[in-house]
Design brief:
The structure holds two protein chains of two kinds. Chain A is an alpha/beta fold. Chain A contains twelve helices and 14 strands. Chain A has two domains: about 160 residues, Rossmann fold, CATH 3.40.50; about 120 residues, Rossmann fold (3-Layer(aba) Sandwich), CATH 3.40.50.920. In chain A, the strands form three sheets. In chain A, strands 3-2-4-5-7-6-12 form a seven-stranded mixed beta sheet, with helices on both faces. In chain A, strand 2, helix 2 and strand 3 form a beta-alpha-beta unit. In chain B, helix 1 runs antiparallel to helix 2, helix 1 packs across helix 3 and helix 2 packs parallel to helix 3. Helices cover about 40% and strands about 15% of the residues of chain B. Chain B has one domain: 3-Layer(aba) Sandwich (Rossmann fold), CATH 3.40.50.970. The chains are: A alpha/beta, B alpha/beta.
């Protein structure tokens, strides 16, 4: 009998096994930042273990607050701490930060311009726990909030750099989290993260892949496979959805024959929508194929099964780049 | 400038009552502009705000962001009319600005935005105040500041679940620098309180608050309760304030208990005269 894949524990590792890994890059970065900046405090709503923030608690116990399962209060308390001069990093899952605490993020944090950093676990389709836990539309929701910076990092390098950039940024931030053993895709010696900036990771004029989050890793793998088949693919990594680097996206698209977007998110309201708006505004006419999640709630199951079923694998990007997935 | 209202000091009740009466005058003046507003709530809470701004609250009208100020968090943003009255009476906002209440481009909005000096939070979306007050109290404690946090919230607002999330955390963190001031005026948007919240005081006690229940229009009782709430014994304080909407203007006290009062243009002079008569009696 063929082996059937099963739903695994809540927070699976992102590591594929082919790249080096860093364990808990967010927690490690936050401790470093905490040493330099005594005003940085940590909060969670009973998900410290699954959002890699417990190392910060263990290092700075007096600067850490667990408010229990209460995400509205998590965000409100973080806003209050910010109002007394602290820089709070508040962790929960993306579904709860967006769906449950939205009014607090919008008003108490963003409208009030408070220096709160919301760090959101289980982004997109990274858990087999079904629609209750899969934050497939969080980026669309969050980028609708005025003044909120929205970040979807790719790997351990990106997580560490974005955490540091978020701490340095004077204003509210929503950052997706990759937790546990996170692969190193971007070279920490050369990669520079800057809020609002896209980064061209490889050159190629036949097709341009514009990717965010961990889909950038898959885009690079897809580009390598395409190269073996004689197709030169460029990859533009767009870790910040807001503010969006429209200039870099338009320039990149103009330098390639056709464009593929790749995101760990529904294809409505996230990266694909932003790219389409940007190309229209910049009058850059290119065929656009979109790789991302469908407009539907997704069932429980093993993460690889679901990612294959719902179209966010390397193979899907390759197919789109070869024109086998319709625009 | 230095923080006002150094403690402990004996309250000058007559002076505080005079400020409360002035605040009620300001409220009628403001409401007359648009001809409507949350005048009932404003008049009802005026005594509590007078006790805070002219006795209990350590604040500096010349520096509303002074780091060690006590915070007064008005969670019910639509009570802004009362806050504008207090801030004007305290000298933060010029009295000449009061007639602009609710007008386009005025700082004195119908619902609080934090762009007006003296406003700590954006308070229009109910259920936001206590949680932010908890964060402020944690932050001030972490800074070893002696400043305290006073959060006003309302009986209707207790129906917002986040109020109780915040209450749970205040009790858990033992925030004795936090005082919840619960204005129970018996009205909400759809009329008299639509969901029974009694027994209010027992609920706050159960969540770990040192809880008092008083007549929120009895100035002496308010001052005594605030003094009691200075006690630092490792738990937050709650003062359940039974207030009368429209307090000080009998016609408004007795009008149908409305969340949003409309007054005919010709009525204002009579209402002002009522306030003056009542003030004369209460000031003895």
């Amino acid at each position: 009998m063929a082996e059937v894949a099963r739903t695994l524990a809540m927070g699976i590792d992102e590591a594929s096994g082919e790249r080096p890994i860093v364990a808990a890059p967010f927690g490690k970065a936050l401790i470093e930042i905490g040493r330099e900046r005594p005003e940085v405090v940590g909060l969670t709503a009973d998900l410290g273990k699954y959002t890699d923030i417990l190392p910060f608690r263990d290092t700075f116990p007096e600067r850490f607050f667990n408010v229990g399962m209460a995400e509205q209060n998590l965000v409100a308390v973080a806003a209050g701490l910010a109002q007394t001069g602290f820089t709070p990093f508040a962790t929960t899952y993306g579904v709860f930060a967006s769906r449950r605490a939205y009014d607090y993020v919008a008003i108490a944090v963003a409208h009030a311009r408070q220096n709160v950093k919301i760090v959101a676990g289980l982004p997109g389709l990274t858990t087999g726990y079904g629609g209750t836990h899969q934050a497939i539309e969080d980026l669309a929701l969050m980028r609708m909030i005025p003044g909120l910076v929205v970040i979807d990092p790719c790997d351990a390098t990106d997580i560490a750099a974005a955490t540091r950039a978020a701490a340095a940024h004077d204003g509210p931030v929503y950052m997706r989290l990759l937790r546990g053993n996170v692969p190193v895709v971007l070279d920490p010696a050369t990669y520079r993260f800057e809020i609002g900036k896209a980064v061209r990771l490889c050159e190629g004029a036949d097709v341009g892949i514009i990717a965010s989050g961990f889909m950038t890793e898959r885009a690079l793998d897809a580009a390598a496979r395409l190269d073996a088949r004689g197709i030169k693919a460029g990859v533009l990594h767009v870790p910040t959805l807001k503010p969006f680097d429209s200039e870099a996206v338009a320039n990149f698209a103009a330098s390639v024959s056709r464009v593929v977007t790749a995101e760990n998110h529904v294809m409505r309201g996230g990266l694909a929508s932003l790219v389409a708006e940007t190309l229209f505004d910049a009058v850059v006419a290119r065929p656009l194929a979109r790789i991302g999640l469908p407009d539907r709630f997704i069932e429980c199951g093993a993460v690889p099964t679901l990612q294959q079923r719902y179209g966010i694998t390397v193979e899907h990007i390759v197919s789109a780049a070869e024109g086998r997935i319709a625009s | 400038m230095a923080l006002r209202n150094h403690l402990p000091a004996e309250p000058d009740i007559a002076a505080i009552r005079a400020h409360a009466t002035n605040m009620r005058r300001h409220i009628l003046l403001m409401a007359e502009g648009p001809g409507q507003g949350y005048v009932g709530q404003g008049l009802g809470i005026a005594d509590v705000l007078a006790a805070l701004y002219f006795h209990e609250l350590r604040h500096d009208p010349g520096d509303v962001r002074a780091p060690d100020r006590d915070r007064f968090v008005l969670s019910t943003g639509h009570y802004s009319i009362a806050l504008w009255a207090a801030l004007a009476e305290a000298g933060v906002i010029p009295l000449s600005e009061l007639p602009t209440y609710g007008a386009d481009d005025s700082r004195l909005d119908m619902s609080t935005l934090d762009t007006t000096p003296g406003v700590e939070i954006i308070g229009g979306s109910l259920g936001h105040g206590l949680g932010q007050g908890v964060g402020m109290a944690l932050g001030l404690r972490l800074k070893q500041s002696a400043a305290r946090v006073f959060v006003e919230l309302s009986d209707g607002e207790m129906q917002e679940g986040a109020t109780w999330e915040a209450a749970m955390s205040a009790g858990h963190f033992g925030l004795d620098n936090l005082v919840a001031l619960i204005d129970c005026n018996g009205i909400q948007a759809d009329g008299p309180v639509v969901l029974n919240m009694e027994p209010v005081a027992d609920k706050w006690r159960a969540f770990g608050f040192a809880t008092q229940e008083i007549d929120g229009n009895d100035l002496a009782a308010v001052l005594t309760a605030l003094e009691e709430a200075r006690r630092a014994e490792g738990r937050p304080h709650a003062i359940v304030l039974r207030t009368r909407p429209g307090k000080g203007v009998p016609t408004l006290e007795n009008r149908e208990r409305a969340h949003f009062v409309r007054v005919d243009a010709g009525e204002w002079a009579a209402l002002r005269a009522e306030l003056e008569r009542e003030a004369e009696v209460s000031h003895g």
